Amino acid sequence: MKCPYCGLENPDTALKCNCGYVFREYRENVERVSSTATRISEPTESSRFKTLVTLGKTLSILGWVWVVIAIIVGFVIADKDQIIIPILSGVVAAIPGFFIVAQGQLILCFVSIERGIQDIKKEVINLSKETK
Ligand SMILES: [Zn+2]
User: Fold this and answer.
1) Ligand 1 centre and the CA of 23: distance in Å?
2) Which of 60, 73, 89, 92 is the most buried if burial means most Cβ atoms within 10 Å?
3) Cα distances (angstroms) measured from residue 106 to each of 49, 84, 102
4) 34 CA from centroid of ligand 1 (Å)
């Protein structure tokens, strides 16, 4: 293996380089770094729901935009002669917006359930490994 300090090639069994660099530490460092790397790469596994999460969030936002616009339009078209009917129709027109929000939240809900199940599965697998 190559000394990371001076660059000298050492036999793989060497614990120390001629320059005084201790390889054991280096090896432990590499192990620590690689275990950190796997810990970091783990969340990307659950990011396979990225599309669904994006869709869910987008639907929620679109739904609220729909609701707000429908109610605003209701207020805008209301005048002195007709107040209640335009506002009421604005509120009625806002109802599909609530369904869109609900749809988006339903998707996000399913994703979080699925993720929760996967976390539980991992825990169970870890536990069964430990008891063996
Ligand atoms: Zn060295």
Assistant:
1) 9
2) 60
3) 14, 33, 6
4) 22
